Amino acid sequence: MIVAQELELKECIGQGACGSVWKGLLRGTQVAVKQLKTKYENADQFKGEVAIMTQLRHPNVILFMGACVDPPYIVTEYLEGGDLQDCIKRHRQMVDKKETVPIKDMIQISLDIAKGMAWLHQFKPKAIIHKDLKPTNIMLDSNGRAKIIDFGLSEVQKQREMENRQFAGSACWMSPEMLKGVPYTEKLDVFAYGIILWQIFTSSPEVYDVSEYKSTSSQASFNLFIHDIVDNKKRPEIPSQLRISNEPICALIESSWNDDPEVRPSFTKIIDSLTPIFLNSVLKDTDAIQMWKKYFPDKDSVPFDDLFDAIWETTHKRELDKALSKKCLEAALDIKNSPISIDKFGLVLHWYGPLLPIGPTSPMLEKIQTLLRFPWFHPHLSGKEAEAILSDGKSGEYLIRCSLYPTAPFTMSRIESRKNPTPCHHRITYNRTTHKYKMQFQKKKNEAMDEIIGETLEEFVRNAEKALGLKKCVICKKYAHLFVSEEDTTDITSNYKVASEK
Q: Where's the SH2 domain (predicted)?
C-alpha cells in the first residue's frame, strides 16, 4: 500500500462518476492517480485486491502501482496518448476532412485490446471480468499502443453502478444479459468489445442517438433503451462501404455483439481472427506473412539476427553471399543493435519487396544489394535533408530516396532549372500487378501530365534522365564499403556523372 504523503498531485486530467484523475508523482516517477469520491467500505478486501492487481504484468494492461486507503487513491502508470475515445474523435475529424485513417492503426488498437482482455480472462486462480469495457477505459501510450484500465477492483465497480444505469455512463456497451439483470459470464466483455470495434472502424465517437430515448424520466428512457437492445436486438448500423472493404472485420463485430453469449467468440479466438488481418495490413506480402507466422507467432518485434535467419531460410537464395546480404539488410533497416518491429519490416518490404520473386521481380535481399550499389540512391534521407543537399546544386542534379507514402516506395528529388533552383520532389509509384515503377510530371504549365515508366528502378532512372534532362546525381558513398572486396573491382559510380559526394 502507498502512504498519501508519498504522492504529489500535479494536474487534474479527468473527471468521472467515480472521482477525479490526476497526473502526479510517486517517489519521483510520473503516475496517474484516481481519487475516488468515497472511502472503501471493506478496507481488508480492498487490500487483498490491490495485492493481486500489483502482480498483473501485460503490455496491454495498465501497470497498477499501488493504492492508498485514506484518502482513497488508486495509482497506475501514466500514459501520454490519452484514451481511445479521444483517439476515435481525432479519427472522425480526419474522416470529415476526407483524410484516410490508417487501417493498420485501427487493427493494431483492436488487437491490443483483445490481447489485454484475453490475458485478464485467463488470469489464475480466478478470471478477471472487466464489466465496464468502453473507449474511456482504454488508454494509449506515446506509441499509440492500447492498454486496458479500470478493472478488478470491486470498490470502483460499486461506485460506477449508478453511472452505468444511464446514457452518460456505460449503457451503450452493456450486454443484453447485463441489461436484463440476469447471470452473466466473461462474454459480456466480448459484447462491449464488439461495440468498440464498430466505433474504431467507423470512427464513431457516439454509439446511439440518445435523443431517441428522451422520455418523462431517465428510468423510462433507460427501459426503452433496454427494450430496443434486448427485445428488438438493436445494434449500430454497419456502413455498406465497410462491408465491401473489410468483411472479416464486420463478421467479427457481429459475432462479438451477438445476443447469445455462447455465440460470441472468446478473446483468444478474436486474436486468431485479427492477427492475419493485422499482418496483411502491415506486410502486404503473402510470403512475408507466412514467414512471420511460422517463425515469430505472437511477436511484435524480433532480434535482427533472428529476422535475417528467417528471411535467409525462406528465400533460399544460396547464390547470394550470406554475410553481404546480412550487412545490406542491416543497412536497409538502418538500425543499431535494436529489435526489429513488424512495422519496420513492413517498411523494408514496401521499399524492396516482394520477399520472394514474382514474375520479373528480384527477391528482396537481391534488390537491396542492387539498390545500395547505385550512387544516386540515398535510402534514409528525409525531404528536408534532400533539400539541404540539393540547395547549392545546379540544374539537372538529382537523387532517389525511400518514401513512406503508401503507394510510392521511392521519391525523386531534383533541381528543375536555373530559373527554379528550389528542389522539387516526385513520388515514384509501384504497381504490384504490372511490377512497374511510374512517375508523373509536367514539362510545362498548362500542359498534360506525362509519365516515366521502368520495370526496375535502374531502368526508371535511365528513362528519367532522358525525359527530364537529368545531368548529375548527388552521389551517396555511405554504403560503398559494403561492396569493397578483392574479387569485386567494379566501380558502378563510373556509369554516372556525379555532382557531389554525401
A: 376-453
